[in-house]
Amino acid sequence: MSPLIILQTQPCPVSCVSTCLAMIVNRPAADVIEELHKPYRDGDLTLREMLDYLGVKYTAFYSLDTPPLADEGVYLCTAPSLNIEAGNHQILIEVTDENYFVLDPVQGREGRKFYVARGKGNGDPLAIDLGGFVIDAFIARDCLLTLRAHADQEEVAA
Question: How many structural domains comprise the chain?
């Protein structure tokens, strides 16, 4: 099975969460950032509330749960920032029946390091093998397919 998530690049250094959510719901990052970024950054909106607002069915995890990357779908994960000292960074890991894919929204920003699946950096000096991360939420492949169908219907209606 091929991956469903299409990589989008975050437009600013601190919009990784909104950009990851945009990739999940298959909407332009700029739209999700306009709607949700400021309240999230101001502490008025949680990641859980953002997922609910976007209509994403998910399973939430606490860091003590340490779930495996076993089911097909996308895992919303927090990893140490490679570009902001002592900062956190949001990434996605999509698991298919055959493989897994790391989608780092900072990939494509000039001069910024980004995470890749182990051994998939293709010699790019900015590509760093993903090490430690915490899974925040899981979205099943069926839900991703539903979100894509919904996004396609909205696009046709517009």
Answer: 1
